[in-house]
User: What shape does this take?
Amino acid sequence: MNRSLLRWCNLALLVLFPIAWFAPILRAGFLPLFGLSEISVVSGLQSLWGSDPFLALLVTFLAIFAPYLKTIGLGLIHFGLLRRKVLPALNFLGKLAMADVFLVALYIVIAKGIGVGRVETAWGLYLFTGCVLVQIGLGWATRRQ
Assistant: This one.
């Protein structure tokens, strides 16, 4: 993959990640009679801060800071402003971001297993997962260069 394409893909992630944070990741409703409300990463974090600050801090780091720091770090490497020695640390940040996707998937499985409400995945979950996977691929391609 050429350097210019890596730069553009990485710059696109700087825009797509914030969109993914505000996009609906799932739709949930209590019992089939009530309508579904959309939940995004940001709205989920807002409700978590009120009930469980430790979990909110963990999810904030995994969903927002880890992927964005990796994206910024890869961009700095692509533009020659950061040494390639930091790639292992950046790749670790990408894996932490993937842990957040796993947490969301786990919540969906648990909610569906209880059977009290209705949970559907929304397009934001696919966007966020795609951003994380593209970022992992960019880290791999950067390491190979």
